[in-house]
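tool=predict chain=A
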Amino acid sequence: MTLEPSPVHDEVVSLLEPLDVGLEPVMASLHARLARDAQLTHALDVAYRTIDSPVGKLLLAATDRGIIRVAFELENHDSVLQSLADTVSPRILEAPTRLDDAARELEEYFAGQRRDFDLLLDFRLSRGFRLNVLRHLPRIPYGNTASYAQVAQAAGSPNAVRAVGTACATNPLPVIVPCHRVVKSDGSFGGYLGGPDAKRALLTLEAAA
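tool=predict ok
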């Protein structure tokens, strides 16, 4: 005797199927709409996204003034976002399209097709002498390096070599603001926010161009 499938059985099976089947595209669309609406109503103060790079996944964050943060994985992206929420604004949302230009220019840089960045930058996370140092760093030519002492001299405080090291170590915009081009007087790398391997990779990339 052959039993025919029961409508009730079919209904039970359908109920046992995962409820999130097919929801991912819907959720992505809703998130994109939320980001767009937040921007239009000025309810979004900090937009962020992540990108893959030869030095690991990078977090990019921007305000209406410009790029405010570039963070390496070593810094813990969740901690960086929390810090931005505490110091800038809690109105933070993942909004990738807001950072399309930055993502594109970084991709070009890592491909060896770009030497200078053409992006608006928000420097509010740095001030005083540290800010003076950061504003000087893009003047170090692509493919070249400068010592901490040379940067201190150029920033107007020849004796502030240690302070230059601190400015580089706390640079909120690494890669874009090239603190990786600052090395010790003996040519050794010195410290780097993204780790020594990342610094070596960036200098090797620029030297090969």
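Helices lie at 7-16, 23-40, 77-87, 100-110, 128-136, 148-154, 161-169, 196-208. The first helix runs from residue 7 to 16.
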